[in-house]
Amino acid sequence: MTTPQRRSVRLNRIQEFLRAQPGGYTARELARLTGVTPRSIQRDLLLLQSEAGVPLTENAGRYGILEPERLSPMRLNLQEARALLLATRLFLRYSDEGDPFAASAIGQLAGVMPLPVRDQVLAAASSLRRRPLDAEFSRHLGTITDAWARRRLLRISYRSAGKQRAKEVIVEPYFLEPSAAGFSTYLIGYSRTHNAMRTFKVERIVSADMLPQAFDIPENLNLDELLSSAWGIIWGDGHLVKLRFTKEVAWRVKESRWHPTQTIEDTDDGGCVLTLSIASLMELGRWVRGWGDSVEVLAPRELREELRAEAIRLARLYAQPARLPSRRRTRRTSPPTAGSVA
User: Fold this and answer.
1) Is-contact 190 124, C-beta < 8 A?
2) Distance (Å, rounded) from C-alpha 29 to C-alpha 236?
3) Is the bond into 336 cis (omega within 30 degrees of 0)?
4) What is the mean pLDDT of residues 166-179?
5) pTM of this prediction?
6) Fewest Cβ atoms nearer than 10 Å: which of 62, 76, 98, 260?
């Protein structure tokens, strides 16, 4: 049964969806995004118009909100616009799903951009609108955003990596953090179920509900400090890591600052040794593998042994000829007649 609180949250979500999509949504599309029936959406739309006074429009079955013309909140110089353009391009590289709110925000951002970069920002918004929309992910992300903004507890049903069954967790949502690896979005917060800080991949959330209980974010909690030991999204006690790079790639290693804890020393053969402290060897290991035989793990021992064993398995695999999957043959019972498609 729908509670007044859930309906209120849903009505807010419907308004946000309609404002974010200039072309509007059909009742069926809104039902898919909010997890209710089209009939419930029709009742919600009537309630928004008759009691909340929301100026709804309807055209060929698509609903929208008649918005007054908004003034540009800022004017950007060329260098400021360049910074936001790069941030927009990074967002497109990280996100692999459609996001009507992001597309709307980027489209509005284009309106205050200087002409040299405006077209590129508009193209980014258009690209985002064309991406497939995962209604369940969008719905969960919207609920998480609402709970985070209102400082409300969140009840999620969460399926951990490799697990079949989901577990209910009560969490105080503190931060939302993107990760380019795997095109993922993470919720970071205090889990009252685990009595500890936890990270939850939004794509693994089965259901999400905002609860009426409020919470406060600790004043001394800083996201960048929290993730200072992380290579990606996993933080904690650091492992001392030493990586020797060959002279052919040493210039590239020294070209970037990979981590806040890093130091780089040159070696006599023209290579270099990168030293850093990282919480997750699993996350770092993916990056190390990308360098192939141009890098050698000197420490820690467990990462070196893991790569050594993997190298042995790869050598055995590639010592054999490639085995292509066999194709099934279909037997013809009679030859095709003239004019038929074989």
Assistant:
1) no
2) 42
3) no
4) 92
5) 0.70
6) 260
CA 252 to chain centre: 28
| Residue 131 dihedral angles phi and psi, to the nearest 5° | -75, 150
- Give residue 93's pLDDT: 80
The continuous run of DSSP H or E covering 323 comes out as: none
Q: In sequence order, what DSSP letters do the residues of 177-228 get, joined into one string?
A: EEETTTTEEEEEEEETTTTEEEEEEGGGEEEEEEEEEE----TT--HHHHTT
CB of 34 within 8 A of CB of 50? Answer: no
Q: What is the mean pLDDT of residues 6-23?
A: 83
For 330, the enclosing helix (H) or strand (E) is none
- Backbone phi and psi for residue 76, each to the nearest 5 degrees, phi listed first: -110, 140
Q: How far is CA 162 from CA 159, 204, 208, in A?
A: 8, 10, 20
What is the β-pairing status of strands 239-245 and 295-299?
antiparallel
8 Å CB contact between 8 and 142: no
Reported residue count of the chain is 342
Spatial neighbors of 119 by CB under 8 A, at least 6 apart, are none
3-state secondary structure of 173: strand
Surface-to-core class of residue 191, CB atoms within 10 Å of its CB (0-12 exposed, 13-18 middle, 19+ buried): middle
SS3 53: coil
Q: Average pLDDT over the chain, rounded to whole?
A: 86
